[in-house]
């Protein structure tokens, strides 16, 4: 191992899937140091962007365990009906209930769910499923809405929290919609609204409303929008993992079509 150039090791490891990298970290301290380095992380993310994959998390319905999945991203031109996903399990403390707030470049932001209304502050933590590491963030006021993002210029992760009081809470997802900031508001299975930031300086937003065929989600649990593909398709999936295989949906706004895709757990 010591005779192999570090650059070559980075190149070899970068070709592995996330699940294999997580296992390789446990081989030795040397391998762990290589796979946790900033240089390898940047290389792996760069290669991942050239072979688009879906990274998402599902929660088991009856405990505090999360399952992080990765599988090749499809688009409307592909006819594959199923694929195999790599899975990494991550279980939190039973007395520390958490919920997902956001995702960016391989990291997930989670929030501790307040146990009582009297709690004035709550904790957030960043989780890296590929390494099994997590880090607590400074506490924020209970009721704040937080999200996670990655700054590609400074190459840093940023957490944005807002304490704005909303008259009504909706399920929202921040996405890259055709190169612009988009906010998906998911009010029910048949109705979706996408707000797109057209001009940041003028705070100019455009609104796009869509009606989805409700019968496509028959036999599934609660569904949520998780991201937008490079071709503009909105990816929807179930919030809770109940059995395998499970379904992922691709909604094409311009065509108003939804494709159901079956995912096997490898």
Key terms:
266 residues; mainly beta; Monooxygenase; eight-stranded mixed β-sheet; four-stranded antiparallel β-sheet; 4 helices; 14% helix
Note down, in words, how this protein is organized.
With 266 residues, the chain is mainly beta. It has a domain at 1-51: Monooxygenase. It has four helices and 20 strands. The protein has helices at residues 6-14, 18-24, 29-35, 38-50, and strands at 53-60, 65-72, 82-91, 98-104, 107-112, 121-122, 124-128, 133-136, 140-141, 145-151, 156-162, 171-177, 180-186, 191-199, 204-211, 223-228, 234-238, 240-241, 246-252, 257-265. It has an eight-stranded mixed beta sheet with strand order 16-17-19-20-3-2-1-18. The model has no long low-confidence stretch (mean pLDDT 75). It comes from Raphanus sativus. It holds the Pfam family F-box. InterPro entries: F-box-assoc_dom_typ3, F-box-assoc_interact_dom, F-box-like_dom_sf, F-box_dom. Residues 1-47 form the F-box domain.
In short:
The protein is mainly beta and 266 residues long. The chain has helices at residues 6-14, 18-24, 29-35, 38-50, and strands spanning 53-60, 65-72, 82-91, 98-104, 107-112, 121-122, 124-128, 133-136, 140-141, 145-151, 156-162, 171-177, 180-186, 191-199, 204-211, 223-228, 234-238, 240-241, 246-252, 257-265.
- Beta-strand content: over 45%
Order of helices and strands: HHHHEEEEEEEEEEEEEEEEEEEE
Level-1 CATH class name of the domain at 1-51 = Mainly Alpha
Helix content: 10-25%
CATH topology tier name of the domain at 1-51: Monooxygenase
**Tally the helices: what do you get?**
4
Strand order of the largest sheet: 16-17-19-20-3-2-1-18
Rounded average pLDDT: 75
Return the CATH architecture of the domain at 1-51: Up-down Bundle
User: Regions with pLDDT < 50 over 5+ consecutive residues?
Assistant: none
The secondary structure category is: mainly beta
Distance between the termini: 29 Å
Write down the Rg.
Answer: 19 Å
The major pleated sheet works out as: 8 strands, mixed
List how many beta strands DSSP finds. 20
* Tertiary shape: globular
Pfam families: F-box, FBA_3
Protein name: F-box protein At1g30925
InterPro entries: F-box-assoc_dom_typ3 (IPR013187), F-box-assoc_interact_dom (IPR017451), F-box-like_dom_sf (IPR036047), F-box_dom (IPR001810)
Organism: Raphanus sativus (Radish)
């Amino acid at each position: 191992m010591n005779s192999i150039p570090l650059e070559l090791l980075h190149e070899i490891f970068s070709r592995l899937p996330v699940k294999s990298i997580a296992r390789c970290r446990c081989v030795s301290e040397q391998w762990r140091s290589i796979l946790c380095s900033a240089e390898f992380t940047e290389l792996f993310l760069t290669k991942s962007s050239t072979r688009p994959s879906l990274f998402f998390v599902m929660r088991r319905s009856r405990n505090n365990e999360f399952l992080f999945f990765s599988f090749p991203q499809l688009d409307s031109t592909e006819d594959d009906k199923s694929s195999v996903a790599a899975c990494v399990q991550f279980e939190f403390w039973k007395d520390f209930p958490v919920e997902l707030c956001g995702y960016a470049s391989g990291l997930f932001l989670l929030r501790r769910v307040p146990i009582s209304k009297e709690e004035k502050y709550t904790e957030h933590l960043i989780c890296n499923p590929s390494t099994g590491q997590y880090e607590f963030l400074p506490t924020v006021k209970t009721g704040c809405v937080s999200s996670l993002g990655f700054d590609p210029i400074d190459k840093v992760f940023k957490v944005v929290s807002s304490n704005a009081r909303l008259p009504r809470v909706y399920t929202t997802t921040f996405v890259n919609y055709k190169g612009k900031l988009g906010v998906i508001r998911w009010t029910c299975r048949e109705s979706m609204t996408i707000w797109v930031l057209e001009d940041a300086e003028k705070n100019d937003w455009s609104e796009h409303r869509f009606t989805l065929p409700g019968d496509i989600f028959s036999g599934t649990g609660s569904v949520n929008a998780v991201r937008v593909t490079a071709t503009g398709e909105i990816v929807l999936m179930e919030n809770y993992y109940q059995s395998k295989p499970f379904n992922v949906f691709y909604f094409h706004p311009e065509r108003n079509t939804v494709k159901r895709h079956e995912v096997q757990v490898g």
